[in-house]
Specification:
The structure is a homodimer of 161-residue chains.
Chain A (H helix, E strand, L loop, with lengths): L27 H7 L6 H13 L3 E2 H11 L5 H14 L2 E4 L7 E4 L5 E5 L5 E4 L1 H15 L2 E2 L5 E5 L1 H5 L1
Parallel strand pairs in A: 4-7
Antiparallel strand pairs in A: 1-3, 2-3, 4-5
Chain A binds a DNA duplex (30 and 30 nucleotides) through helix 2 and helix 4.
DNA sequence: CGTCTATTGCGAGCTGGTCGCAAGTAGTCT
DNA sequence: AGACTACTTGCGACCAGCTCGCAATAGACG
């Protein structure tokens, strides 16, 4: 559902920025409106927290952050908001190993990797991955969707120690 | 998948083979003993089922299969057995998107990919991945451990349809 | 300002997986 | 073969992460 595109909807005055990556310069509220969905206080709080955090974060931590703004916000609401934002393409969620899945702004197109030793979350540059994707498609027809899964391994710190 | 077994290992007289990849030609029981762990009926049933299945499988389905041999086997036992086999390096488990994690014999070193549309589990050839791993290590110091995570995307079937 | 519907808060519930414990059994020693 | 001991099992309770149903609330729009 909700297939209306962001662009082409001049909300009010806003010379609509072309990308979410300017998110930090646009208010969460404007962003929501721009996507044609209700700008409720809980949603604004969640999106604000997500923008402020800048990086993958799990739903519980995000709830905590959002509660700083909007104390009554419920965990279930955060999950639902993530679902909405995800459908709109504003955020995506990443499955990382055992733990909870992580959420991040979609403009961050790097791949997420989780260190099995220390649990650190590392962003890996997307270049090599793009090559992997095209190789893979050529070889198998399978089109990888990075950004929906996390890689696992051992980070540089833990390797040396 | 299809990492077919090297045939031709004497079943019982067993001069211990060096690798798990001969799994299909050696009994699960022998394999367990070889690794110095107790060959109990539940464990044998689980490992047998895993060998027979040949491919990634989730714990519940594995429990079903194992129960064909050993009806009283409990789900918790299957999880524990997976844990033991995993520590021994006989199997590894793969985290696939939302659903349950999958188990497979370790000799199957290909990467697992899950189709987001149809849920199909596809094995991707390891060649391109090995290149990704070395690229990644050079670039970031992060050593990827494939086989512990699944990639996600859209399979060839769903792309065309 | 009033209406109408999307959204929220809340608690119950579901799934995947783990844990503690008493009973059972594999492996070892005699 | 029989006894012993420690590892395993089955079982149920429990936990985390997440979803759902529903009544109450509150945005958006006229």
């Amino acid at each position: 559902m909700r297939r209306d595109a962001p662009q082409g909807t001049q909300p009010d005055a806003g010379p609509p920025p072309f990308e979410v990556e300017v998110a930090t310069s646009i208010s969460a509220e404007q962003l929501l409106r721009q996507y044609g969905c209700r700008a409720t206080k809980p949603r604004i709080a969640v999106l604000d927290a997500l923008i402020a955090h800048d990086g993958p974060i799990d739903a519980i931590a995000l709830t905590d952050l959002a509660q700083a703004d909007e104390p009554s916000i419920h965990e279930a609401t955060v999950y639902r908001t993530i679902g909405v934002l995800s459908e709109l393409g504003i955020v995506n969620h990443v499955h990382a190993g055992h733990g909870p899945s992580l959420v991040r702004l979609s403009d961050n197109s790097d791949l997420v990797a989780v260190c099995q030793d220390c649990g650190a979350i590392v962003d890996l540059p997307g270049k090599a991955i793009r090559r992997l994707i095209s190789d893979m498609q050529r070889a198998t027809g399978f089109i990888l969707e990075p950004g929906h899964f996390a890689l696992e391994g051992v980070c540089a710190n833990c390797t040396t120690s």
